[in-house]
Amino acid sequence: MQLSLQDVVKQYNGTTILNGVSASFYAGHCYLLLGQNGAGKSTLAKCMVGDEKVDAGSIILNGSTSQVFDEIAMQYQTFESYKHLRIREIIQLFKILTENAYYSEELYEILGIHSYERMLLKNASGGQRKAVSIFLAFLLNKPILLLDEPFADLDLMKKKKLLYFLQTSMQQQNKLLIIISHEVAEFEALFDYIYILDKGKIVEHGKKDELQQKYKHAVLPGIEGIYFDVTGQVLGGRGA
Amino acid sequence: MILQIARMYMLENLRNVGVLFGNLVTPFLFIFISWIFKISSVVSEESLLFIIKGQFMSFSILLLLFQFAFSSSTIYLADLKAERTFNWIQRTDATPLKYYVGMGIGVVTLMNINLILVLLGYRLLIDIPLVSMAMIVLVSNFVLLALYPLSFILAGLFRNGKVAQSMLVPIMLVLMFSITMTTMFTSLAGKNPHDYFVFLSWNPMLYLNDIVQFNLDLIQKTWMPQYQYFLILTGLSLVLATIARKVYSIR
């Protein structure tokens, strides 16, 4: 399975957010999409899942532009719907609405949903809503999964368990995983490929190992060093 | 799947205490006021009957229908859009049509339960034949059929549930008072309200109010034969549903 973006352009009110983005993603791998705030990561994600229409270019799945969006699930940064339902009722609703739902007890446990499953969503914290969003994205059981800042708002233990879950179960299912994240230091083992987005363009991409070799003299270690050398920016911070 | 959607809609509405209280308080308040009138004997038996049937009960039914069949669903739909719920739903196997049907079942169920409770409440105070009650319930469901697609149109125009909620007040005044005030003032002027109904035929509440008044023996005949009301409301529902498809976007 191959997902390709070809010269994707997206504008809002005359401002170009994505300026000819091209990329290829393959099943069984995990891709990291990096970029500073406003680089166009979330817009690109929304275009990839069909929430936003592209102004030019195309999004192709296995050589076809039709039914691309049916094959992609996205974990949004938060979950705001059904405020007066209990969290377990929301999960139950989506389980019933999805014929081929992937209900993972392991993920339920990792995200600690048992401890707040009776809570109404309106009373849930940011981290708890994020956990619901992650669980539902997996529940939809699509071959392509796009996670938007999955580690933010989760406590350290949940982050580590989620990393392990992503590494093991996702690769066993041969899914394509695309992750937008500023937090990379502790999760580098997860990523196979890296795309760096700056001002609406892909400014660097490649296999993580090859990029690490290419930028081996970077002043910062690992992926953060690659990002710093390419953009002159510190991940989640200011420029040099 | 559809029943689960209906169940969740009802649960959300029942747990939203503020909205639920707002929906119930006015219709049931009129029952309480009617009871106070009855026990205080400040008016004659005949006047009491006329006040309850002509004002309190008609108003309770109209308000209840407006709240449960229109107001709640408009706010709910506006929030679904604002909270981007359909970004999630469209990736499940539930089509928008299935979702709207499920939600519609929830709306119908909540409205009917509360309507029957209101009618039973008034039945404790005045004599209402079961046939009349059944007829009022029937026409209420046809009015709901017309109002349900209208709620999609309005939800499509409003940014979120809070904006919808603020806009629903003037809409309620237009939908309800255009009927009740016209009927009252033309009657006081010694004219037949039916002569003016043609100007209000766009308003689904007109048909409800006229059938309610007829079934409570307040008028001798309806403006048009009752079966024509049902046909008009069905036609209105189809027209509004066509517009709603264009106006209410899930994105």
Automatic annotation (TrEMBL), chain A:
It comes from the Bacteria. This is ABC transporter domain-containing protein. Keywords: ATP-binding, Nucleotide-binding, Transport. SMART domains: AAA. The keyword NAD does not apply. Belongs to the ABC transporter superfamily. The keyword Transcription regulation does not apply. It comes from Lysinibacillus contaminans. The lineage of its organism: Bacteria, Bacillati, Bacillota, Bacilli, Bacillales. PROSITE patterns: ABC_TRANSPORTER_2.
TrEMBL record, chain B:
It comes from the Bacteria. Keywords: Membrane, Transmembrane, Transmembrane helix. The chain crosses the membrane at residues 17-37, 57-78, 99-122, 128-155, 167-189, 227-248. This is ABC transporter permease. It comes from Lysinibacillus contaminans.
